Amino acid sequence: MFEFFPGDRAWSSTVNLALMAGGSLGDMERWLGPLRDLPAADPSAADPPPARLEAWAAAWAGMAHRQEELAALDLKAGYPLTAGARYLRASVYHASGQRQIPLGPAKSESYAAALQAFGNAVECASLPLERIHIDSPDGMMPGYLIAPDATDPRPVVIVYGGLDLTKELVYAVVGTAFARRGVTCLVVDTPGTGELIRLRGVPSRPDYEVPTAAIIDYLETRRDVDARHVAVLGISFGGYYAARAAAFEPRVSACVSWAGSWDCGAVWRRRWDGRSGYEPASWFLPWVLGTPTVEQALERLEEWTLADVWPRVTQPLLIVHGEDDREIPVADAHRAFEAAGSEDRTLRVFTAGEGGTEHMQTDDPGPALQLIAEWLSLRMPVEAHLPAPSPRAV
Predict the structure, then answer these.
(1) Angle (CA) 145 242 382, round 5°
(2) Residue extents of the structural domains in the chain
(3) CA gap 71, 86 in Å, rounded
(4) Which residues contact 208 (CB under 8 A, 6 or more apart)?
(5) What pTM did the predictor assign?
(6) Which fold has domain 130-263+304-377?
(7) Contact 116/190 with Cβ under 8 angstroms?
């Protein structure tokens, strides 16, 4: 993995995610580069010292605010689309930076700034999305619907982010990749993510077929969506959510796991016991899972296993993984592929030689995203003349 901060996987992975979502390496170097000169941290500690966190938060905030200043100048000059692009980048910076900030005012302010900047981007650039709200057992779930330019109802893919992604970051990553292929895309904050965890304290849950059912109930009320054809795409930890949805919600018609998940509890136990470079932080997992301590969170996470779930996934299935993924071992992707009950299933492992070998292909995400969108469009009734897919493993 490209390590902007050598030896610090947590900070470097955040930089890579921001680049994946449209950030600028030049911005990173100008604002984050000086942080490399900070005193080295103790890799065995559970949390970084406050001074490092303050410097981190200030750098990301400054980087985002600079984009907002430039956007205001673009608007004044009469360039609203240019300003919209600046605001979207500012939103990515605000949202990325707050991922490593512990709970408290600074984190809340950074997240609020991300939402505001994203709203400005929508207003200035008329981003092709519709903000929606979905009633569910966990309360209203906000999302963005990105629809293709079509008059007839279109199939839809629900995109679930990982443990610490927001719908705004997910939108910045996937953009119009699905809409360009005639598939409506829904990015949504669900239990444990985005607005639900940050503004309402709703933790994650193992039975993700419950929020999925609520989402499909909503989609069935829309005339512009063909709710008979609903796929699920899970990014990183969201691969668990997608598998659960496909296994236990019969209205799901296809499943994509962007990082093949097998046993989330085992993965996180290894990460905590062998942590280095402050990953994971002691506050993070209890916050997402709604427990007082890390140990209780790890015990709760033992429910997040897919060993008995994958055989119930019979829909067309795509698993995309990196050969050198250091978050979820590639062996887990192979286990998931072998255990799945789908006849039409594909496992795509990206290698170092071609790029995209890291987690979520953050070292080269473009080809993986395009592959996912293409694979999915071939399994949805987008165009009648498209050939039927044949089962294969890559």
Answers:
(1) 50
(2) 9-125, 130-263+304-377
(3) 5
(4) 160, 190, 191, 240, 241, 244, 245
(5) 0.92
(6) Rossmann fold (3.40.50)
(7) no
Confirm if 43 and 52 have CB atoms less than 8 A apart. no
Q: What digits encode the pLDDT tens for the residues 118-160?
A: 999 999 998 899 999 999 999 999 999 999 988 889 999 999 9
Instruction: Retrieve residue 391's tokens.
Output: 């089962």
Burial of 341 (0-12, 13-18, 19+ CB in 10 A): middle
Q: What is the DSSP letter of 229?
A: E
Q: Tokens 């050598």 belong to which residue?
A: 6
Q: What are the start-end ranges of the H helices in the chain?
A: 9-20, 25-32, 50-76, 80-97, 105-125, 167-174, 194-199, 209-219, 238-248, 264-273, 284-289, 294-301, 330-339, 365-377
Residues 9-125: name the CATH superfamily. acylaminoacyl peptidase (1.20.1440.110)
- Strand bridging mode 345-350 / 317-322: parallel
Q: What is the DSSP letter of 306?
A: -
- For 192, phi then psi, to 5°, come to 90, 0
- Residue 348 φ/ψ, nearest 5 degrees: -115, 110
* Block mean pLDDT (10 aa), the chain, length 394: 82 91 95 88 64 92 98 97 97 94 91 97 93 97 94 94 91 95 96 95 96 98 95 96 98 96 90 62 89 93 95 98 93 97 97 92 92 95 51 52
